[in-house]
Amino acid sequence: MLTFDTTPNPHALQVRFADGRSCPPLAATLPASRALRSYRAGDAAVKALTQGDTFAAAILAVPGISSVLVSEQWFSVVKVPSAEWPSVKADLRRALRPWTNAAETGGRDEPA
């Protein structure tokens, strides 16, 4: 389950896992020093995937998301002005189901 917090930017939300879990890290082959990861829509989803960041790639695949910033304990999404928050939130919940269900079922933190 996800929790959404507003920010001063009406087109941005800070998102956390409701159970307090950390956001999934980058692939183990990448330096652990990259605590913050930032991507913009478009080629960023491809870049995220090639860097092993399937979590960020899933977020960027949500219609209306223009960028994502992932930290250890939260992530922030920015939407395009024409996107509506109710549909973006619903799509985010669906896109991140592999990670939210993993905590509920004791499964993996990464989709298969």
* N-to-C CA distance: 19 Å
Poorly predicted sequence stretches spanning 5 or more consecutive residues: 105-112
Q: Kindly state the number of beta strands.
A: 5
Major β-sheet, in short? 5 strands, antiparallel
**Rg computed from alpha carbons, rounded to a whole number of angstroms:** 13 Å
Spatial sequence of strands, sheet with the most strands: 1-2-5-4-3
Structural class: alpha+beta
* Overall pLDDT confidence: 82
DSSP strand content = 15-25%
Oligomer: single chain
What is the CATH top level name? Alpha Beta
Helix-strand pattern, N to C? EEEHHEEHH
Name the overall outline. globular
Number of domains: 1
Q: Give the helix level as a range of percent.
A: 25-40%
Name of the CATH superfamily: Scaffold protein Nfu/NifU, N-terminal domain
Stated plainly, the CATH topology is called Ribosomal Protein S8, Chain: A, domain 1
Any guess at the CATH architecture? 2-Layer Sandwich
Our count of helices gives 4
Tell me the layout of helices and strands.
Blueprint: E1 2-6, E2 12-17, E3 37-40, H1 43-50, H2 54-60, E4 65-70, E5 75-79, H3 85-95, H4 97-105
Antiparallel strand pairs: 1-2, 2-5, 3-4, 4-5
Helix pairs in contact: 1-2
Plain-language structure description:
By secondary structure, the chain is an alpha+beta fold. Helix content is 31%, strand content 23%. Strands 1-2-5-4-3 form a 5-stranded antiparallel sheet, covered by helices on one side. A hairpin with a 5-residue loop joins strand 1 and strand 2 (12-17). The radius of gyration is 13 Å and the shape is globular. Residues 105-112 have low confidence and may be disordered.
